[in-house]
Design goal:
Layout: E1 23-27, H1 32-43, E2 47-52, H2 55-67, E3 74-77, H3 85-99, E4 104-107, H4 123-148, E5 154-159, H5 172-192, E6 198-204, H6 211-216, H7 232-239, E7 250-252
Parallel strand pairs: 1-2, 1-4, 2-3, 4-5, 5-6, 6-7
Helix pairs in contact: 1-2, 1-7, 3-4, 4-5
Length: 255
């Protein structure tokens, strides 16, 4: 059963030190929801590890955090499409060496692919979507588990979607990757629920003003959608210790 506090999480108001001294890894931190989350976490006292493939975007997020006077972040460039198990293990080892622990991961990075019917689905693109959206999530989580377990209370947040709960025509590769994400989160949460300090949950951000949304819905007026900053309360709540009793849930960032 959900903690009663969850029902207030969409307008969650954390104290200014809610994430003080936490070390949080954010993938896709150079843009959109990842950038907004990195800034939100840093504003509440976290040291954020900014991971993404485009260094100039990561540097812009880094500069925004430093200019705001928040804890100095770190940058870890990685292209999830090409990263193999050794690359993920090297990243986890670097975090362990430099920080000693990891208090949270936000698995935000995803690619949409091209919306098309299954009989016209490009096979290589199918592979690319699964590699970034679920295979990399598995590899990174697996490599980081020992570092997460060194934290007093660790939170792993996965990014889901409405099409990861109900399949929809033409969303094939992306939808399948998000169904897999939901299943992976549930398995991990069940495995770690007893005798560990690591909890796992999914967030469905909903229709949000991002480049991915614009690609999927090119005719939509993006100005009618909430911004990534607007949906941050749930992202902060699940990363904070106020959500310690929430595990194995798939939650919506918008009412």
């Amino acid at each position: 059963m959900l903690d009663a506090k969850f029902f207030h999480s969409l307008d969650y108001q954390p104290n200014e030190a809610a994430l003080k001294d936490k070390v949080i890894l954010v993938t896709g931190a150079g843009d959109g929801i990842g950038r907004a989350a990195a800034l939100s976490y840093a504003a509440l006292g976290a040291t954020v590890i900014l991971l993404g493939k485009t260094v100039v975007k990561l540097e812009a997020t880094y500069d925004a955090i430093v200019a705001s006077g928040y804890p100095q972040p770190a940058i870890y460039p990685m292209d999830l499409l090409g990263a193999n198990p050794d690359h993920h293990q090297e990243m986890a080892d670097t975090i362990a060496t430099q920080f000693g622990r990891l208090d949270g991961i936000l698995h935000n990075a995803s690619i949409l692919g091209t919306l098309s019917p299954i009989d016209n689905q490009n096979i290589e693109e199918w592979y690319r979507v699964q590699q970034v959206n679920i295979n990399a999530v598995f590899l990174m989580t697996r490599a980081c588990l020992p570092v997460l377990m060194k934290a007093k209370s660790a939170s792993v947040i996965f990014t889901s979607s409405g099409v990861g709960r109900q399949g929809r025509a033409y969303w094939g590769a992306y939808s399948v990757s998000k169904f897999a994400t939901e299943a992976f989160m549930q398995i991990l949460a069940d495995e770690l629920e007893t005798n560990t300090n690591v909890r796992s949950n999914c967030i469905n951000p909903g229709a949000t003003r991002t480049k991915m949304r614009a690609k999927a819905y090119p005719g939509e007026d993006s100005q009618t959608l909430p911004t990534p900053e607007d949906i941050m309360p749930l992202y902060v709540y699940l990363m904070s210790d106020d959500s310690q009793s929430i595990n194995g849930e798939s939650l919506d960032a918008q009412a």
